[in-house]
Design goal:
The chain is built from 16 helices and 19 strands. The protein has 508 residues and is of the alpha/beta class. The protein is flat and about 90 Å long.
């Protein structure tokens, strides 16, 4: 049985669709909604296999239901005389579209079955891609460890230098003044080191995004994608080949999903390394180049491996096809890369390389850049003459201690989630709090759960929440989703944290 939600505001159109469904020879359990709000409520209460929605509704566009109907297939209805709007809907995530003036039982039934099957295949494809990413991360663990251990090493060394200088200053106070310049340098180097580690972690989070987590479009420079993929594969590449990278794109940027594009480049570099390793008689070399051609960015990865005969080039795009020895590959690298490139409106082609092996050519269209939201500048923050009272909620004792020291002279009450809820329940405490700084991921109660409890029991504090997290904030319900703009990603500098707090206090 197909659980179907029909979203249509016109009585005659709903009746026509009911008749068509009756004659479509489908086992249908039909629910109906006449507006977006009604449909949202029904989607929140019941699981549907498919949503059949008019594009234009009294309170908005039918495509606004896509985020809340993410588990269901989505077919749009349009009364337009041509299929232009229907095709546009496909680019936004719909599985199919139907023109109302051509609606009949056969095409309606065919469309619903096709949309449900296409949605199922898309879910499977995401799961395959996720498994491929995890397999890649397993292969690249040594490179990731190297990228993190390098800044960790000099941060640890600088901290040791600072500790020794402070110990000397306790015995010889004058020595501190002599070492002050060097200590400031140590602090600045360490700060840059922690920023580098944080950047690596954010890239890993983007790369290893789960199968149900849709990566947003971003402003992409292909040079950054290549740099990240090279950093990830460096350890593996250095063992088998010399790598040459040449990027001549003039800094051209385009709208894309950097985590998924990094997966493409990582897969291609791993394949190139395996190919070169299997051909020891040739000079071990891999070349990566990027250039602009008209309105496209073209990236090529050449290797000095054995190459592929023409009869195998087309088969190489198929899932689970591999020329590697058993246990050496999943056969998913090229097929996943091909699917991701296609998703970006590009092409992936295989040619013979001038190095004697294989050349993989990726072409990506330079589309309109999606501007990322920016935070108000720190200079625009209103000044606060008197110390604020801040409630800091984090399960990590080290974080609580560090931020209590960092935020001095402001008064910081630092607790775990359960301790914080108990503290604000004591008479007078909630009224003293200027802002709540709350971690998102905690073992007993997570940030959204703490927010929901405080919003219910202490409504004044609901407007004074700022979330801090080492990962993007989970979607935990309608009560929390409006606060996405109040999430700060760790590590957070004192200036950035106080700027966010002061903006919040000034507007509440």
């Amino acid at each position: 049985m197909i659980n179907l939600l029909l979203v249509e505001d016109h009585d005659l159109d709903r009746e026509a669709i009911r008749r068509a469904l009756h004659h479509a020879d489908l086992d249908i359990a039909l629910d109906e909604a006449t507006c977006l709000d009604c449909a949202r409520r029904q989607l929140g209460e019941k699981r549907y296999d498919c949503v059949l929605s008019d594009l234009t509704l009294p309170d908005g566009e039918g495509l606004e239901l896509l985020p809340v109907a993410s588990d269901a297939a989505f077919v749009v209805l349009t009364g337009a005389v041509d299929d232009r709007r229907g095709k546009e809907a496909l680019t936004h995530g719909a599985q199919d579209y139907l023109l109302k003036d051509r609606l009949d039982p056969y095409w309606l039934g065919r469309s619903l079955n096709y949309a449900i099957e296409r949605k199922r295949l898309q879910v499977l494809q995401r799961e395959v891609e996720h498994q491929n990413r995890l397999a890649s991360l397993g292969q690249l663990a040594a490179s990731v460890a190297h990228e993190i251990n390098n800044p960790t090493a000099f941060v640890a060394a600088n901290l040791e230098t600072i500790r020794m200088a402070l110990e000397r200053s306790c015995i010889e106070p004058s020595s501190f003044a002599d070492a002050a310049h060097e200590l400031i340098t140590c602090v600045e180097e360490s700060r840059h080191g922690t920023e580098r580690i944080a950047s690596i972690v954010r890239q890993l989070q983007s790369f290893a995004r789960g199968p149900d987590e849709a990566e947003p479009m971003a402003d992409v420079d292909i040079a950054d994608v290549i740099d990240w993929a090279v950093a990830l594969t460096k350890s593996q590449l250095q063992q088998v080949a010399r790598l040459h990278v040449e990027v001549n794109t003039g800094g051209a940027r385009f709208a894309g999903r950097p985590g998924r594009l990094s997966q493409v480049m990582t897969n291609l570099l791993i394949n190139a390394a395996d190919a070169v390793a299997s051909m020891p008689s040739r000079e071990p070399r891999i070349e990566v180049s990027a250039r602009t051609e008209a309105d496209e960015i073209v990236v090529t990865v050449d290797d000095a491996g054995p190459g592929l005969p023409d009869t195998m080039k087309e088969k190489a795009m198929r899932p689970f096809f591999t020329t590697k020895a058993p246990g050496r590959g999943t056969g998913l690298g090229l097929s996943v890369a091909h699917e991701i490139v296609h998703e970006h409106g590009g092409t992936l082609k295989l040619h013979d390389s001038h190095l004697g092996g294989l050349c993989v050519e990726v072409s990506l269209p330079i589309r309109k850049v999606v501007a990322a939201p920016t935070s108000p500048p720190i200079e625009a923050v209103p000044s606060m003459d008197s110390p604020m009272t801040l409630l800091l909620i984090d399960d990590e004792v080290g974080v609580r201690r560090a931020y209590t020291r960092l935020l001095h002279p402001h008064v910081v009450h630092a607790f775990t989630a359960t301790q914080a809820l108990a503290w604000v329940s004591e008479p007078g405490n909630a009224a003293r709090v200027d802002a709540v700084i709350c971690d998102v991921m905690m073992p007993d109660l997570d940030g959204p759960a703490v927010y929901n409890i405080m919003a219910r029991e202490h409504p004044r504090l609901a407007a004074r929440f700022i979330f801090c997290s080492g990962a993007p904030m989970p979607a935990s319900g309608d009560d929390v989703s409006p606060l996405q703009h109040r999430v700060l990603l760790k590590p957070i500098s004192r200036d950035a944290l106080l700027a966010a707090v002061q903006r919040l206090v000034a507007t509440t």
